[in-house]
Amino acid sequence: MSAMVYSRVVSNRVVVRPSREVRFTLATVEHSFQYRGDLSQTALPEILYTIHRFQVPGVIEASRDGALKRVYIKEGNVVHASSSDRDDSLGNWLLRSGTLSQQVFDETMAERERLNKRYGVLLVEKSVLSPAEICRAIRQQIEAIVWSLFYWQDGSVIFSIGDFREPDSVRIQLPMPQVILQGIKRAPNAKAMAARLGRKETVFEPCYRVEDLIEAALDAEEYDLLSRVDGQRTLYDVCTQGPNGAAESAKVMYAFQVLQLIRPAAAAPPESGPRREESTGAIKIRFKTTGDRYSS
Q1: What is the pTM of this model?
Q2: Structural domain count, the chain
Q3: Most CB within 10 Å of its CB: which of 29, 134, 172, 256?
């Protein structure tokens, strides 16, 4: 996993210079800026942490195999998500979760097509579900769209930086550190994430503030695992001695690294250095553009 830093430029082209040659473009589009990436080269959690670090509002658009998913970010929180994949629709989510039977689903979907109404509105009007149940279901559906992106190992990502019109729908407030941690825990490919941590002999040390742990909402088992990171135990020892299996522990350790709660002990900077400027493996991007308020 390589650290990437945008350097200051006057033009709209920004070059990333990691250990391997990868280039991204920050392009001006109708007075906004876009960060473009490839999930096969840069993992989604690292992109999300970069966005969180600079506290910029905007919309992530991830596309793969004809599916387009959008995640709306404001004030460090995921506030909404949408998807063009019919499997992510509210109706299909209610059917998969067992909230609706196949018969009720078929009947209401047919009526929805005939009346051209929002599905949630129709279900309330027909007394199939209460308004509270629909609100809760939409929140869970939105969260499921966000979690689904952590399954993607490839695809293109565009982050359009700037304020956006808030969707006319139920909004959520998911703090980004919690999104990163919970999304990584839900991801199926533990081996790929463990590989981004380095060799099993790698030794990590803690570099967090307690406030960081509260913001990420670490539970007792996650905090237990983090407490085993002491600058002496190897990655293998921490993962195999943790409260859960080695594979699950490796995923959580990767989340700790992305969130900059831990860092490789050998790469620790001098004590006088700023806490958040060290290279810990997460992407570091400085949004430097002339005359734009998202400059750093």
Answers
A1: 0.76
A2: 1
A3: 256
